[in-house]
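Example protein as discussed:

>
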Amino acid sequence: MKRLFFLALVFTLLPSFALANLSPTEAPGHLHIQDSSGVNKINIRASLIDSLRTTNYKTSGRFYDNSTIIKLSFEGQLSPLFRFRGTTEVISDYTNRFIEPNSFNPYEGISYTKESDKTKSWSRFTSSLEYDLSFATLLAGSDFIKWGPAKRNSVILRGNSHIYRPWMDSTTSLFEPAPTPYFGYEFQVGPLTYTHHNAKLYHNKNTGKYLNAHRLKIELPFKIELGLSEVTVYGSTTEDNNINPNPDADSANRSFEWVYAIPFIPYMLAEPLLGDLDNNALAFDIRVQTLKNWEFYAELFFDDLENPLSMFDESWWGNKWAASIGFEAKGICVSSVCFSTNTEYTRVEPWVYTHHKGGGYTYQNYGSSLGTDLGPNSQEFYTRLDAEWQWIKLSMEASVVKRDTAFGGHIEDIHTPLSETTKKFLQSKTTMRYGELKASVLLSPWEWVWGRFGVSRYFGYYRGYRLESSLGLTW
């Protein structure tokens, strides 16, 4: 805690000592810095957050977890053409459980430093840059990539979305998503927008793993938006030969494939020319906002599916797909109280996000899925209702989750020549089922302070409860 207090003091005082002519921004709670021309400017915000969580499930005891977070955020521009933003977070965790040592291998999740049997510390940062050219926008940084309109479970690229699941209640690894370094570009011509990302992923230390993704977005009349995406993941094989018996699991020392970085080249055509080695996926999404205050959306993710017409054929394990469909309504006000709601259904078929070559090709980074964190062979029905009045926001949530624990239901599973060629969605004997009812309230009476309090009740496999509270101060 002494180190965290020192870091908080540095984050608070350093901008005041290092920079002159400071002026407050129009938005409360920010430190605004700009030159005399007003072109070069930066907004800085520092936050101190403390949270406490209590869990008690029938399969475990009662546990307490406390986290202290110091966060520094900044955004600005060095010219109207060059924009930047970033965050730095330092987290200290305390628990009444024993914390296992961390090997700093990415497949175990974000690395942390064990300070004692009950405490650990870790950090995370993001940074992104945008530079406008006359014909395109250049993109670079180390950040989260989010594609698709889904609110709860994005099956394409979920970005920094993190949803607590009871199976994540662990002291052996961190299940939070991690940013990834990337470079890319974006072209826009009328209603068409083409976005391209080339990123570095992490699974094993000292081995290469990469992601290439491009997306074409089309804006149609009546506020209808269509998206078409291709994603490919590849890298060096991380399993020993005696662990992975697949005859083509021999891609040692894979390096970045530059053909995937060239714009407008379909990955489904490029992959065969590279030896048919990689984990390619095709995705579609739609967003409809024709009705005022309403949004209807859907995402469909094909993972190595050779023929979309065979998506419901369970005779071949390789027919892998996932989908999220839902709607959201917001800005519906009755007097001074405004309501919003979201309902979403997600289905993930067996073996989705996995790959028979192992960790170098799985659809994950730092041990977390790049798509929905439900994992393969799962589904969720989720609904939420929010009511907001002045500085008080009340949320009610309900979800029903089914997750198959059999072979093909974990992202690390490897299909071998001896494995069954059929698939079965949510087998009754091996499927874990639970429901969650959650109520929470967010209080933000001033710009610089807020608090959140919530209680979750679990039924089924994870029978029990979870209490959570957090308090944040922003400067």
Observations:
- Residues 2-18 form the longest helix (17 residues).
- The chain has one domain: 2-474.
- The domain at 2-474 is CATH 2.40.160.130 (Porin).
- The longest strand covers residues 62-79.
